[in-house]
Amino acid sequence: MQNFNLHTPTDFVFGKEAELRIADMLKKYNAKKVFVHYGGGSVVKSGLLGRVEDKLTGAGIAYVKLGGAQPNPIDTLVYEGIKLCKAENVDFVLAVGGGSAIDSAKAIAVGSLYDGDFWEFFDGKPVERALPVATILTIPAAGSEASNSMVITKTGATPLKRGCNTSHIIPVFSLLNPELNYTLPPFQTACGVADMMAHVMERYFTTVKGVEISDRLCEAILLTAITEAPKAIKDPNNYTARANLTWAGTVAHNNSCGVGRIGDWSSHILEHELSALYDVAHGAGLAVMFPAWMKFVHEADLDLFAQFATRVWNIPPSSDKKALALSGITAMENFFSSIGLPINFAQLGAKKEDIPTLVKTLHINQGDSFGNFVKITMDDAQKIYELAV
Amino acid sequence: MQNFNLHTPTDFVFGKEAELRIADMLKKYNAKKVFVHYGGGSVVKSGLLGRVEDKLTGAGIAYVKLGGAQPNPIDTLVYEGIKLCKAENVDFVLAVGGGSAIDSAKAIAVGSLYDGDFWEFFDGKPVERALPVATILTIPAAGSEASNSMVITKTGATPLKRGCNTSHIIPVFSLLNPELNYTLPPFQTACGVADMMAHVMERYFTTVKGVEISDRLCEAILLTAITEAPKAIKDPNNYTARANLTWAGTVAHNNSCGVGRIGDWSSHILEHELSALYDVAHGAGLAVMFPAWMKFVHEADLDLFAQFATRVWNIPPSSDKKALALSGITAMENFFSSIGLPINFAQLGAKKEDIPTLVKTLHINQGDSFGNFVKITMDDAQKIYELAV
């Protein structure tokens, strides 16, 4: 087990009507002027934004708002938010939505306390401070409601999708009401499940030995996702399934399941190029790239892939570790298919002939190689994309 | 799943030489005058206390110290610590040791900011503030390094052992170096394992339905303890086993595995009387009381006990839920025995003829009944103690 630091300071309020606690929680954390950031129409149409605004107004908490965050949130909206926060002397950022609204809000929180261009932080400059961020989560998936990470796409002829990690953007508090997920369509629910499972699996596949506790914690989250996802897709108003998935999504990415390990993150890196080029849902892209990456790397640790097959996919133990490993990968593909996710380029709407373009922007973003479980070169990346076709 | 709040703000530094970070961490959290609290000789003899004092002196951090915390920490030492903290204008409490030193330090932290008798908080008065507490953990077991709870024994003709929970005593930071556990004798290691498993099982056995995520998280911790405990007992210097057990002990009791559930805590309540009367190790008492409690209550939810048997103890599924439930309980007893723990009064050194005394003080401490999974009356308690004989 590796030495580690773990600090998960987010104050969670979880359950029915959790969003109605917003004014109390903002006061608890001394918010004076709040920037409310949200996405498209559903937060407005569902009445959620109105309920939040009513609570703020009722409690005498000043706020400004900006909508428009979209899947794969973009730099131009971040610039707009930063300008507004600076002009209005905002001291607290509240995201209402899913991972996109939260990531966009995090970037705005960082940029609002910086005189230069916020994109510098996505080019590697260390973040030194940010406005406090809180969230009301409507889509469990990205885990951004408790994570130290954000992903933003720089628009342009060749879009660049990049991540940035810093403890300064870990939400101060997050309000999670699983009922807010009832309106999520089955496909979007499934994409969220793939995303949370990917967050766990990026941590699970590690070269670090002797990490039974985090092996088991990772498996616990995966087993929950596998059990509960079909229920939420079959019956969108199944509170129990929504609640279990919501919390699974949170602990999948607050690093509590990754302690003592070194994560890999290659599948995320490979997927980012897909969603930047095609604007496909991140979770759908992960359902395509994770199996392909596994097919490429599993021989690096057949014991770990065999453990994954037996403990997560309930495949009977066998002395043929290679066969066991492949059975686990197939079981995962079958599961993704069963909940309506694509598992290859054709189903995703990606094109084999774009692979050189994908590898080219990957090279711009990642340099010559990436990944920790197995080091992936650009040649390897090309092969993995081909395995995904 | 129940609505819940979860706030686990403890900043963890985990791994080899973690204790050497003490001065940095105290400065990070603005400690000016530190009260260092510890137990008996091992913290002194091992050189740990000296290393900590050297770091404080080197960093120019003022401190006073008080040793003497003992298993089942007592009120008289708490009064002494409070007097010292008040006299020296201490603003930060650092516990160096196991659960006893930490619990004693927590009570001192609460009492140091209160003009009355700290025992009032153990009589039910809500805690409103406390000095910040941090820990350097030497014995993984009690989970006190990340929990909101403390247990103190009021000395006297009939000792009273009582708990008190408040968010004000959740440690600000905890430094966990598994190497510090190398000197723990096998029996004490085993007692710690029983304690952490009990913390999980008190949460696991609940009447709340639809809590797959926390079912699985609980099982993850139990499975880790079962796998790693024999290794640490066989080879006390097995870093991997010590590290997995240390972290298992922490997450067993910071409530991350108990989300959405209502815990039971009857076995703890029943055990408190044993360790108050006989001064036996808490973990040893739990290894005796938990199986007895299970034998008394399992019919209240055979499905849950069957799940416990199959998922935690790897017993093949069966349509005979009752037999499955009993097999799980037996498997747990066998495990406790295999790591050298007592599983009945005779092995613990408790006496059948003392049961009326145990029930009498239990009644004083708990009123007419306790427990959430099954309500336990005083008659029930007598029967459970008899099952433990």
Key terms:
homodimer, 389 residues, alpha/beta, six-stranded parallel β-sheet
Fold topology:
Two copies of one chain form a homodimer.
Chain A: E1 4-14, H1 22-28, E2 33-38, H2 41-45, H3 48-58, E3 62-66, H4 75-87, E4 92-97, H5 99-111, H6 119-122, E5 133-137, E6 149-154, E7 160-165, E8 173-176, H7 186-204, H8 212-234, H9 239-251, H10 266-278, H11 282-297, H12 302-313, H13 321-338, H14 345-348, H15 355-366, E9 369-370, E10 376-377, H16 378-387
Parallel strand pairs in A: 1-8, 2-3, 2-4, 4-5, 5-8
Antiparallel strand pairs in A: 6-7, 9-10
Helix pairs in contact in A: 4-5, 7-8, 7-9, 7-11, 8-9, 8-12, 10-11, 10-15, 11-13, 11-16, 12-13, 15-16
Number of extended strands of chain A: 10
What number is the mean pLDDT of chain A? 96
Give the helix/strand class of chain A.
Answer: alpha/beta
Instruction: Give the number of helices of chain A.
Output: 16
Summarize it.
2 copies of one chain form a homodimer. The first copy, chain A, has 16 helices and 10 strands.
Q: Explain this structure to me?
A:
The structure is a homodimer of 389-residue chains. With 389 residues, chain A is α/β, with parallel strands linked by helices. Helices cover 50% and strands 14% of the residues of chain A. Chain A has 16 helices and 10 strands. In chain A, the strands form 3 sheets. Chain A has a 6-stranded parallel sheet, with helices on both faces. Chain A has a two-stranded antiparallel ribbon with strand order 6-7. In chain A, β6 (149-154) and β7 (160-165) form a beta hairpin. In chain A, α4 (75-87) packs across α5 (99-111), α7 packs parallel to α11 (282-297) and α8 (212-234) packs across α12 (302-313). The two termini of chain A are 36 Å apart. Chain A binds chain B through residues 1-16, 18, 209-214, 216-217, 219-221, 223-224, 227-228, 239-240, 243-244, 247-248, 251, 256, 259-260, and chain B through 1-16, 18, 209-214, 216-217, 219-221, 223-224, 227-228, 239-240, 243-244, 247-248, 251, 256, 259-260.
